[in-house]
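Recap slide: Membrane insertase YidC/Oxa/ALB C-terminal domain-containing protein, sequence and predicted structure.
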Amino acid sequence: MLRIGLSTSVKAAKAFPRVQRGFLSTPLKTLGSSGRISSSFQAGGLRFNSTSSGEKFEIQNKLVSFDEPVEAEKIVSTLTSNEWGYLDSIGLAQGWGPTAFVERYLEAVHIFSGLPWWGTIAVSTVIARMILFPLYMSASSNGAKLAKVKPEMDEILSSLKKAESNQEKYVLVQDRKRLMKDNDIKFYKQVYPMLQLPIAYGFFQALRKMSAYPVEGFADQGYAWFENLTQVDPYLGLHGISAALILAIVRAGGETGQQQAMTAPMKKVLMLLPFLSIIITKDFYASVMIYVATNSLCSMVQTFVLRNGTFRKLFKMPPTTVNAPAPGKKQPETISDWFRQQKESFDEQVHSRTKETSRKLEAQVLRRRDGTDGFIKRHNK
């Protein structure tokens, strides 16, 4: 290590360039035992020390270590959580992504409703699901139409897998399109419920960040046994409620209310869902679990509403039907039977594709042997 001592005037010290905050280091000012104010900063391998009596440069032979833990400094705001702009003043609700959008949305509901934070999260979740409800209605109607023609659709798809010539495939594809057009079926409507994913992601990230900061009021504006929203639910009550609601939703036919024919292995798998969900969410903040539980409750209510015959007649929606399995197909009784059936189906598809490829190669060889069949002969001049 090399030390170089320099005596400079106060003007020279002021003229020395300062390292901006957020670059390699941050200027620091300390008050020594003698009462003199000293400033220091470190950039790369150079460290600069200054006092009122003089300055010293210290050149190091090693770079600054980035492994040392740095304690994050929390921003102190002059605003309260009941004032607009509070989240922005502490570094949240910035940008235009789903997380920032949900943070602004939660702040607006909290301010204009006057609800505590647990009520703000629950009400915000209900409002978001009400906005998405028309999309679920459209997906439910489309699913009912698709279930009505499922036997014909399965027959066409089965024939399409077994077709060997391109002409046969073309005819079957046209038949499928005609069937969908006659019954007003649109496959893209089935993905409408997927629009909830970016919103769910925004809620999860927003509440996680707001709990970790924590936002003012999160520590004491909970309810019942989960009073502190910045901690994990001590009794896992919200986790258990969410798991039970998820199981009820799946057994009732999903969020669109369209019933599915469940095999025995599928029923056994569904019995494990509540336990898996508790294990996955056991370390989530109570604020996040309020959203999960409320969202699950909304899904269950939506499921039973979309299955109600009176509601469907009122909004001119086709009645729900059970998506029965294809006729003549044996249903697996155990999970091993299901895996065996899937393997047989995969092997059948591979065999069909191999057979088709071999047929094309054989036809290509025959055409090359006969130059008059679709090939142009090259004549030497």
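Residues 344-381 form one domain.
Residues 243 and 276 are 9 Å apart (CA to CA).
(End of recap.)
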